[in-house]
Design a protein that fits this description.
Alpha-D-Glucose-1,6-Bisphosphate, Chain A, domain 3, TATA-Binding Protein, 3 domains, six-stranded antiparallel beta sheet, 16 helices, 21 strands
């Protein structure tokens, strides 16, 4: 086996270890074989992020697809994953390939495969492609040079500026730019050396915001850390928010499909809080489409459920993975879908998470609340109103590194012999590794689909109760009984 594992979330591996040009050839040929088997004709859009050699890996994939006489639409500049997904839908193509490792550390690169509807490829599709890529013979690879592809017309180069303009025009149909302009927001941004460099600041400026930015150039090392817009990684943005007297700090991850938010005092607002705030804003303030429901992953706060209940709309909970959110968004009558890790999409947009959209919708919410108060209103002020109305929901996530053997043993235990209690905490019911605890709160334990980590999530009505739940979950994961023999 070559170590290629394409899931609906993509394939990510260490550059020069598993993520090599040889493996890219096999994976690209497997994708071509899959598309030909499906009878797909219109073509594939290919984009890439700011990582080391991403442009060359993208060209490699383009050469293989072109060698299989599949039309390629190539974007020759770092481009956000949601923009590539939007291109698939706009051009009515068969699929999209994005060379990216998203928010993973700099030594990683990866590939994401999106279907014709713009969302992630299905489990069945990615499993077939994985098997084909790992078992095919080298002689099966068909490839022409990039120059041959251009000369014969099977590779078409897309102007990145036109791609950005089309995406901006689409954003104007989803976001109230005039409302943002009227509020005159001052915003500090951090695209984290990633794909949103040419997007986030430009869109906010066009909406009348005063924008101050950091990390707006390509750095394949991402300043020496993972391009993940979490609290630890946004300390420089926090300082900028305060020093520039901005009312808001906005960040996107490496491929701009996740977003992070800081308040006017530079304090981090968790993704769980932001998802709840945006669900509330969409249902209460926007007014339109109030008959549509909400969808979230099992790791996302139950504050969302409480908000949906008040507005008498369904709240669907699905397994972790934005593909599951997107599938429900695509097939059912849903207004907004989100996940705890910073993924979001709304009705009328692609069934793929979009960090730029999340940032813009946050700016619109702050603009709306500020204008309604005749003065700027902090996000914490807005969230405090939610707590007063719906009660307190405290959430936390902890990541623990285990060996593969330990993770396999833990997964086996959770699947076949799930615990009935965590210490002195009694489990009342279990759904998909989510344990509901007597007297309130829940724990969820799962293996990351893209990193060698076990993730523990918890939610409770008080910080004391949350602390107790997290400690119980961590103690369970570290028990000797589930360790590798």
């Amino acid at each position: 086996m070559r170590g290629i594992h394409l899931s609906p979330s993509g394939w990510r591996a260490i550059i020069a270890k598993e993520f090599t040009f040889d493996n890219m050839l096999f994976l690209a040929q497997a994708i071509a074989d899959y598309l030909k088997q499906q009878g797909a004709r219109p073509g594939v859009v290919i984009g890439y992020d700011c990582r080391f050699l991403s442009d060359e890996f993208a060209r490699c994939a383009a050469e293989v697809l072109a060698g299989n006489q599949i039309n390629v639409f190539f974007v020759p500049a770092p481009t956000p994953t949601p923009v590539i997904a939007y291109e698939i839908v706009k051009r009515e193509l068969s699929a999209g390939i994005m060379i990216t490792a998203s928010h993973n550390p700099p030594m990683y690169n990866g590939l994401k495969f999106n279907a014709q509807h713009g969302g992630s490829g299905s489990k069945e599709a990615t499993a077939w492609i994985t098997n084909q890529a790992n078992t095919m013979h080298e002689s099966m690879i068909k490839r022409i040079t990039y120059q041959q592809g251009i000369a014969t017309g099977v590779i078409s180069v897309i102007d990145p500026a036109k791609t950005a303009k089309k995406y901006l025009e689409h954003m104007k149909t989803l976001i109230n730019m005039e409302l943002i302009k009227e509020a005159g927001l001052s915003v500090a941004i951090d695209p984290m050396f990633g794909c949103a460099i040419e997007y986030l600041g430009n869109i906010l400026s066009s909406a009348g915001c005063q924008v101050t930015a950091i990390h707006t150039y390509r750095d394949p090392l991402f300043g020496g850390k993972a391009p993940d817009p979490d609290e630890d990684s946004l300390q420089e943005l926090s300082q900028l928010v305060v020093s520039s007297n901005s009312c808001l700090g906005l960040a996107t991850d490496g491929d701009a499909d996740r977003f992070g938010v800081l308040d006017s005092d530079g304090k981090y607002i968790s993704s769980n809080q932001m998802i709840a705030l945006l669900v509330y804003y969409m249902l209460k303030t926007r007014g339109q489409n109030r008959d549509k429901g909400v969808v979230k992953t099992g790791t996302t706060t139950h504050l969302v459920d409480a908000i949906a209940k008040k507005y008498n709309v369904p709240c669907r909970e699905t397994n972790v993975g934005f593909r599951n959110v997107a599938e429900i968004m695509r097939k059912e009558n849903m207004l907004i879908g989100g996940e705890e890790s910073g993924g979001l999409t709304i009705f009328g947009h692609i069934p793929e998470k979009d960090g730029i959209l999340g940032c813009l919708l946050t700016a619109e919410m702050v603009a709306s609340e500020s204008l309604g108060q005749n003065g700027q209103k902090s996000i914490k002020d807005i969230f405090r109103g939610l707590q007063e109305e719906f009660g307190c929901f405290f959430t936390k996530r902890m990541d623990i590194c285990l060996s593969q053997g330990e993770m396999d043993a833990l997964s086996e235990l959770l699947q076949h012999n799930p615990p009935k209690r965590f210490g002195d905490l009694q489990v009342t019911r279990t759904e998909n590794n989510k344990f509901f605890i007597e007297n309130g709160g829940w724990l969820l334990i799962r293996q990351s689909g893209t990193e060698p980590l076990i993730r523990i999530y918890a939610e409770a009505a008080s910080e004391e109760r949350l602390h107790k739940l997290m400690n119980a979950g961590m103690e369970f994961v570290r028990l000797k009984e589930i360790r590798e023999p």
